[in-house]
Amino acid sequence: MDLGLNGKRALVTGASKGIGRAIAETFAAEGASVSICARKADEVAATIASLQARGVRACGRALDVADAAALNAWIAASAAELGGIDALVCNVSALAVGDTVETWEQSFRTDMMHSVNAVAAAVPFLEKSASGSIVLIASVSGFEVDFAAGSYGATKAALIHYAKGLSRQLVAKGIRVNCVSPGNTYFEGGIWQNIEKNMPDLYASTLKVNPTGRFGTPQEVANGVVFISSPAASRISGAHLVIDGALTVAV
């Protein structure tokens, strides 16, 4: 299937590793130009080089997405360098699991407000696109109660609701909005590798309840994200795509 992404322009936050990087690389594999951001300059540079090696235009910046001014500047600069924006993927999470003032503040500033601020900054460019798309990355923890109940789960639930509302608010501008909730996803340097090393009982119990007998991969999530961002998904808006290998039981 031709996703219609060749020559399109995609922005992905938190794209130097894990799910975000897989999303950026999958956009590039489909012929899209890509701009990324992440915290570490060396990782951003390495990812940009990898994307450019695929023969597409790629750019990016090192920044903290909780810094609204820096985030807005990156989006504006990306639009200028790429000649516009067709797709925005808000992927960054503070991964602030807990129920303390600190975890609530981190989750709100990073997971929630980076998405809100990125959308506000990108909409003026997306409405000029013939196939404008926004995808917010939430989590299965946002619609089922699990060990991440508290700041992380509640903020992810808010993102699911926010995406649905945006889909109605932006439809007249020709912008589609969807939400993707990954299940347990394992990658080098990711949260589940850290849990495997430091909380082996939690790792083992979580692996046990995955019906597939394994965790998901970043590429499996990226495939869904890039499809739903593409012109091939032109009728899909306001959807909540769960990519979890039948882990969750909610209807």
Q: What features would you highlight for this structure?
A:
251 residues; alpha/beta; seven-stranded parallel sheet; 8 helices; 7 strands; 45% helix; 14% strand; globular
Can I get a quick summary?
With 251 residues, the chain is an alpha/beta fold. It has helices at residues 18-29, 41-52, 68-82, 101-126, 151-169, 191-198, 200-209, 218-229, and strands at 9-13, 33-38, 58-62, 87-90, 133-137, 176-182, 240-243.
Topology:
Blueprint: E1 9-13, H1 18-29, E2 33-38, H2 41-52, E3 58-62, H3 68-82, E4 87-90, H4 101-126, E5 133-137, H5 151-169, E6 176-182, H6 191-198, H7 200-209, H8 218-229, E7 240-243
Parallel strand pairs: 1-2, 1-4, 2-3, 4-5, 5-6, 6-7
Helix pairs in contact: 1-2, 1-8, 3-4, 4-5, 6-7
Structure description:
The two termini are 29 Å apart. With 251 residues, this protein is of the alpha/beta class. The protein is 45% helix and 14% strand. α1 (18-29) runs parallel beside α2 (41-52), α1 packs across α8 and α3 runs parallel beside α4 (101-126). The chain is globular and about 50 Å long. It has helices at 18-29, 41-52, 68-82, 101-126, 151-169, 191-198, 200-209, 218-229, and strands spanning 9-13, 33-38, 58-62, 87-90, 133-137, 176-182, 240-243.
